[in-house]
Amino acid sequence: MSPDVTKRISALAEKYYPEMVRLRRTIHANPELAFEEYATSSLVAETLEKLGLEVKRGVAKTGVVASLRGSRSAGDSVVALRSDMDALPIQEATGLEFASKNPGKMHACGHDSHTAIGLGAAMILSELKNELRGEVRFLFQPSEERNPGGAPYMIEEGALDGVSKVYGLHVLAQADAGTVGFCPGEMMASADELYITIKGKAGHGARPHHTIDPVVVSAQVILALQTLVSRNLDPFAHGVISICSVHGGFAPNIVPPEVKLVGTLRAMSKEWRRYAHERIHEIVNGICYSARAEAEIKIDLGYPVLVNDEAETVFAEACARELFGEESVFRAERLMGAEDFAYYLEKVPGTFYRLGIRNEAQGITADIHNDHFTIDESSMKAGAAMQAYLAVRGLEL
Ligand SMILES: [Zn+2]
Ligand SMILES: [Zn+2]
What we know:
Bound molecules: zinc ion
Strand content: 25-35%
Shape: elongated
């Protein structure tokens, strides 16, 4: 690849910017929820077919996988670039001219722009095809927002076969448009759902000695579960347990038969995640035993911990500096949120990074998952250029 490749990629990102805006607005106006991305994936597949890529539709139900093979030597490296396509069940309140036409559905997490950026990167890389070696594989996946996520199904259906590196990005409302942020190592948490039912013995509230009161037991359980983080986790490590819903009882003088607790467990390491599951069983069962109550514990596994490969993150950060200059690169913070890109990173080294989309002067400050969320669209140039450059450089190594 010629030494002026960063300039050429930036110029190509500029050239395809109007097309990215058109695609993003089309997708934004027609949001589809997890595993229902039919119109979105058709638009994606058609756009990629027009570019002459090998396109596979219907991967993981509504996903698309496309290959761009470089014509320079037969290199067998494969770099994968991932975009997620699903919207959220939110009623949009932005008032934008291209606001959602689907009531109760909205692209409030920026996946419309992730998709347009993925297509923009495909346009840029198609123009560099003669100088590319190896294969760039574009993964347009369904359902990032809803457990169990589209990623495990994409992997099951071969999306990562032969892939040596994988890169993905997510918009960040706290960073200015045109900047990119990186975080080596653990970046996002695992997220498991807890469903605990405390079963006692119902009876008269004035005769508690004839009952086994699940309300008192659940109060003890809720407090004791807080020791999971305060007493069972290295103070230098991170984890959260929150019981977010408590349901039981119906009258002031009746001890109810049971109380249901629902909550979330977030871990930053898979070892502690496993340990926390064990301790939840011990703590809940132990307290129930002492009260002669019974517990039913169900832990629904969510996405795993997202761990960025250290070397790949350093590499990507260096690429960003070459492309945009030092002032546009920041250190991204860890988040206790979860992201199914974690599944790809369990299989293949790579990195997941942040793309700033904020523009205070234009009033673009709302956070993701908010009904006023939108982006400074110029950030898509940086996103597409970055993804394209990572593929170019990643294939050269
Ligand atoms: Zn989201
Ligand atoms: Zn998202």
